[in-house]
Protein 1
Amino acid sequence: MKKYDVIIIGSGLGGLECGYILSRKGYRVCILEKNPQIGGCLQTFRRGNISFDTGFHYVGGLEEGQSLYPLFRYFGLTDLPWRKMDENCFAEIVLDGKSYCFASGHERFADAMSSYFPHQRRQIAAYTAFLKKVGDNIMNSFFPERRNEFTASSLYERSAYAFLQESIDDPLLRNVLSGASLTMEPNAEQLPLYVFAQINNSFIQSAWRLKGGGSLIADKLVESIRHMGGDVLTHAEVMRLTEHNGLITSVRCKNGEEFSGTYVISSIHPSLTLSLIPDSRQIRKIYRKRIDDLANSYGIFTTHLQLKANTVPYLNRNIYIFRGRTPWDYACYRAGEKTTAALVGFQLPCESAYTSNIDILTPMHWQEVAPWAEAKDESYRAFKMRKAEECIALASEKLPGLKAHIDRIYTSTPLTYRDYTGTKEGSAYGVRKDYRHLMYTLLTPQTPIPNLLLTGQNIGFHGILGVSMTSFFTCAQIVGMKSLLKELET
Ligand SMILES: Cc1cc2nc3c(=O)[nH]c(=O)nc-3n(C[C@H](O)[C@H](O)[C@H](O)COP(=O)(O)OP(=O)(O)OC[C@H]3O[C@@H](n4cnc5c(N)ncnc54)[C@H](O)[C@@H]3O)c2cc1C
């Protein structure tokens, strides 16, 4: 049996970042990934010479002094070929045919919004200042000695929807401000304010695409981990954890290989983690039931369009399109309803002024694909094609003639994610956080087994920024909060 200081299950962003932090701290780590490709949601796939992203399209806050910058500087990721998105319009929100631009920078954002809603200028300024305050303080809330009144539970136990109702009078403006929320499942009854504010703030700070796709992030982290003496193994699906005297003593993979570590960190869904130790003495039935019962966010249906060469000019912004519904409605659409919301993202070209491919993302609940969970047949393919046609029709509102420029169409559904990343119910953002039941839905890294820790999007926050913050929080349980904070700040 191979021995390490830390065994990490899963090589998505959460697993790799924990591997990086602990390797840098001198721990010998081994990351076990079930797939042939590392990266989880950061994976890309190639068709011909075109590369398609899967669970990564853009990040926010990558300039010095902003939310993601110190974390990505620590991980050595700021030198990747990032390209800033249009400062005057990194996100175009299209509500029933009318466009509103999100501009980068808090002042520019407030000015742009006020040009559409001059009567709401004061409320827009207050809203923007509030988002900034959340962004400036959210990381501190992880560290007890840095907590303040603002980051206390009042921020966590507030509803995003109610906050908008209370702070913005104009209902249309409320919908515009919520227009980029496909990235967080905008459910009026559950979405906590901290999720809404933290994500929107980071994109308002500055928005960035990556030339070459999300797999560059994973590749760079793996290279650094290996350079520091760690191992990253693919084709290593963890099937079983063995518990002895209240601790995890070994990790067994599908191919029979066994590993041991002083600590085990799992970046996969907590319920799937517990299923790896069915006979644990430490995990009580009630804890297992609580974790198994957690609801998960919706999944995403993506229509990946390969375009004919030099037909569609590259657009340095994302377009969020809504038809006949508000951003707050589409988290609760019913299976079989027509597609009324989509995020259209463009692949950053290397040299050309034209893009080679476009992704159209729309929410999709697990129930919609559940009939094919065991076996996919012709009806599944027909379902995907029907959905893709709807997405293309929606995107054509802003990109007239798009259909004529399509060379090939590829699709992915929550079933694809269930199969590739093992995510429960193909959920895009993991465990659904609920401001009414925060104690239950905002998990901490600790488990009843002292040397088994959790990380990744199911724990604190989702998205690239959220998972990165959570990675620090998880590793702080091993190396201590103070030393990590110090390194982060130098
Ligand atoms: C369609 C889509 C678009 C998105 N776009 C963006 C975006 O533009 N910007 C942004 O900030 N966020 C985006 N996100 C969210 C972001 O990608 C995720 O929050 C983040 O990457 C999750 O990382 P993770 O490490 O928690 O999980 P994952 O990436 O799911 O990693 C888990 C890993 O564990 C592996 N695994 C599972 N079971 C086992 C096992 N038994 N043994 C070994 N390995 C196992 C999986 O194969 C996977 O590699 C998007 C998500 C989706 C789905």
Protein 2
Amino acid sequence: MDKLKIKIIMGSTRPDRFSEHPARWIAGLAEAKREFDVELLDLRDYPMPFYDEPVSPTYRKGPPHDDMAKQWAEKIKEADGFIVVSPEYNHGYPAVLKNAFDQVYFEWNQKPVAFVSYGSTGGARAVEQLRGMAVELQMAPVRNAVHIFAPWDLVADGALKAGALDPYAHSAESMLVQLLWWTRALKTARG
Ligand SMILES: Cc1cc2nc3c(=O)[nH]c(=O)nc-3n(C[C@H](O)[C@H](O)[C@H](O)COP(=O)(O)O)c2cc1C
């Protein structure tokens, strides 16, 4: 079987974002699995307008009108599965991430998604909202997630402190094992 294409979406575009650290960390762990072909997607590279197509993507025939949204749709279409790396903003997830999800519909369908989040409660409230949205997009959110607590304590001078994410290696592994199972199963089913 071809390698399974996993796209890791960084949920923050802020300067000095923390997002960068867990995204690169989980990408390294995912790449260590020989079944995965991993690509990091940075929403800074896809500066899309707030969704303003005349109809919902569910009813759209053909690609989005906006060029950047079109590129985004093509990238999402390539994927067999996703890992979303999300902060918690006001007990939810960032608007830039919601907008990226809203832009396309069919390209997300019948694909699994796993979550790495962070915040004072490990970003758990943001992930609960992401799970609900994923179901509406006909995705399969996997059970296990990585919840990183108090990310602001894990960086010094913009760099991740040595070993700061080591305590999360176990939850990352169980999440990746579940993602692998679902990615393989759904790719076969989509076949
Ligand atoms: C607009 C905004 C709202 C936030 N709200 C929450 C929150 O509700 N819960 C929480 O745990 N952290 C909250 N935070 C703190 C973030 O978890 C923290 O700043 C984190 O580093 C943001 O992720 P980023 O650096 O990747 O953008 C908030 C931060 C911002 C900028």
